Amino acid sequence: MSPFAISVDIGGTFTDFVLQDRERRTIFTEKVLTTPHAPEEAIFSGLDLLSRRAGLRADACDLFLHATTIITNAVIERKGRDFVLLHTEGFRTTLETGREHRYDLTNLKLRFPEPLTKESLKLAVAERVSAKGEILGAPCREAVMEGVRRLVDDTGVTNFAICFLHSYRNDANERAVRDWIVELYPEAYVSISSAIAPAQREYERWMTCAVNAYTMPMLADYVGRLEQGLSERGFRGRGLMMTSSGLPLSFEHCVRYPVRLIESGPAAGVLAARGIAERNADAARGADFANILAYDMGGTTAKGAFLTAGDVHVQSSLEVDRVGAFESGSGLPLVIPAIDLIEIGAGGGSIAAIDERGVIAVGPRSAGADPGPACYGRGGTQATLTDANLVLGLLSEPNFRNSGIEVSTALARRAIETTIASPLGISVERAALGIHNTINENVARAFRVHAAELGIDYRRYTLVTTGGSSSLHAVSIARILNIRRVVFPFGAGVSSAFGLFMGQEGIALQKTRLLRLDQATGAGIAAQVDSMIAAERFASLLAQGSAATSLTLGMRYEGQGYEIAVKLGSDRRAYDPAAIQAAFEAEYRKVFGLIFPDYTIEIVHWTVEVSRDRAMSELDGFGYENLRQEGAAEKGARAVLGRPGGDLSVPVFDRYALRPGDAVPGPALVEENDTTIYIPAGSRAVVAPSFDLIADLEAQP
User: Fold this and answer.
1) First and final CA of the chain: distance in angstroms?
2) How far are the Cα atoms of 78, 221, 409, 638 from residue 388, in angstroms, in the given order?
3) pTM of the full predicted structure?
4) With 80 as the cut, is the pLDDT of residue 700 above it?
5) Which ranges carry the Hydantoinase/oxoprolinase N-terminal domain (predicted)?
6) What is the DSSP secondary structure assignment for residue 312, as one 8-state letter?
7) Rounded Cα gap, residues 282 and 502, in angstroms
8) Any alpha helices (H) in 55-192, and if so which ranges?
9) Is the pLDDT reported for residue 154 higher than 80?
């Protein structure tokens, strides 16, 4: 085994690193500003810093794990690449028409996401497959390729999305057209909907394929530059990227399916939160960590996931680029396996403004890394959450220098004064407190709504914070939600990078196949699972080794339009139809409060997860490089604006000088290189054996 393994998480504002030195049994962390124009530049900068500080040698590193927001940002900001859409004749506007669903019936000016497709780059193909999978009409090679050549000659675009009706039942027509294109244009990028999302419902399948095509050339270029730079530094190990389902996949595989990287970083953050809860369970009476709310907030967005009994819920679809806050149906639907997350436009770089009601609104727009918050002095003039926390005294100028950033409280005050305080006729301090509290309420509201959708009583959950910005807001959000315990992990600012090590290499496979449960057999269900695995080369290779296989079924009563997920897990004894019926009825009753015993049940959607039975790299038994062996834990005090409007003198602790068993009563600030923790009055935190801080919340003072 090589001495080093490294993980890198690229966020909208910062790029985070965790280096595992296996010889010294030590963990090193680093954080640098993201370089949006060329994300690999931030990676190479961080690697150079770790080479100087920790002795990292790329030629002695066997594992490079990566999470990135590059795909999500490309879709939201519409910075992908043009593509030719080849579609079944007569279905030219499927992606624009969608479901004809109004997500807000009272809004007369309803908006929807801007389309990814261009009318001038659509090509109708005379072909047809029936709903049963019968080929009613095969495409004509001459006609198709004449249209393709004309578009390529006119536009130079050699990026294609092939989306035909009912291709999930029979993909022969899509595969034929793909082969013709690749034969003529060997370097072309081609996505076919039957491979990207082999599921029923044309709109959702086609949209998934369109997003894949829109982002594939960009990801291929980025991965090519990254691999070249790593190779030049001597790296010869394996490179994997985190997918939305929480399973790392090879660079090569991810380039073919970039749509699966939509929630790459947040997925790693959820895995980190689960690992944090597990390592603290014994120290906090076990049951207290059975259920957790994973709360991740960085520079651009905040994410939340509810883990019940430690189970990470992977859903078969998700929606991105919503134009309506918390409004289902206002975004782009994608049929990909993804960890169930709620995402809010709230982070350190979130821009504060005065909305049409004349009150403070924060987010979803973000200053990002360029120009960044006003306090960075890089040209930003709009007030952000980071500016507000700096003015409030929750953040300090010296602590930013640990990330190589010089900030100015004066610039932060000027931005808040100009954009918020003066227009509202209030003090800068009151405006800053309003920005801070608005974020708390927005995040808590989002978590509350998502919990209601899931039928969860979040008051019995433990809040686990990850991300550089979450630790300043976690206790306030927990109090709003009546959550009684908060965990602040060591290295919270780079937790998603830690989570990359906790992932298990694997792949999630999806397929639509209708099967009445009263006609199913356990052997038949097992055969369907085996055939899905055999059809995917990587899954087949995993299954031949020590891999775990888990099955989740999308089920419904016959005649219903949508399904509920029924997780059967890895035990094939659960494939018995009677056991499946019992599991379906239990899940249906939990969601709807009743069942229909006389109705026929059918299986619609199959999700098979194949993964290795071990984490990418174990972190147990490793120490943290930045722990101090001597020195006082309390390093001073500073004024923090209190809730009533007066200043509080708050003690400031050095996180790296705290030892297991040390208590930190609130109010207090705990500083580490990549984040600052705020323990308000009425709370008390204790350092666990894991070096994580666990705060118990008393009644709000």
Assistant:
1) 53
2) 30, 38, 9, 16
3) 0.91
4) no
5) 6-182
6) P
7) 19
8) 70-76, 94-97, 141-155, 172-184
9) yes
What are the helix (H) ranges across 562-646?
577-592
- Look up residue 346 and give its amino acid: A
Contact 364, 327 (CB under 8 A): no
For residue 458, give the nearest of 485, 486, 482, 474 by alpha carbon.
Answer: 482
* The two structure tokens encoding residue 654: 């050095």
Express each pLDDT in 320-336 by its tens digit. Answer: 888 876 678 888 999 99
**DSSP character for 457?**
-
Instruction: Compute and round to an integer the Cα radius of gyration of the chain.
Output: 26
Q: Which of 20, 25, 22 is nearest to 7 (CA)?
A: 20
User: Tokens 């709109």 label which residue?
Assistant: 203
Cα–Cα distance, 298 to 389 (Å, whole number): 14
Instruction: Determine the Cα–Cα distance for residues 322 and 446; give it in Å rounded to an integer.
Output: 14
Residue 605, token pair as written in the block? 């959607």
Of 8, 31, 51, give the one whose Cα is nearest residue 402: 31
The residue ranges of DSSP E strands in 425-580, in sequence order, are 462-466, 485-488, 506-516, 547-557, 564-569
And the tokens for 128? Answer: 């047809």
**Angstrom distance (rounded) from CA 68 to CA 63:** 16
Q: 601: closest CA among 577, 624, 637? A: 577
pLDDT computed for residue 325 by the predictor: 66
**What is the identity of the amino acid at 574?**
A
Q: How many CB atoms lie within 10 A of CB 218?
A: 18
Question: HSE of 186 in the Cβ direction (CA atoms, 13 Å)?
Answer: 0
**φ, ψ for residue 416 (rounded to 5)?**
-65, -40
CB of 326 closer than 8 Å to CB of 115: no
Q: What are phi and psi of 608, to 5 degrees?
A: -115, 125
In this structure, is the dihedral angle defined by the CA atoms of residues 576, 578, 581 and 585, taken in order, positive or negative? negative
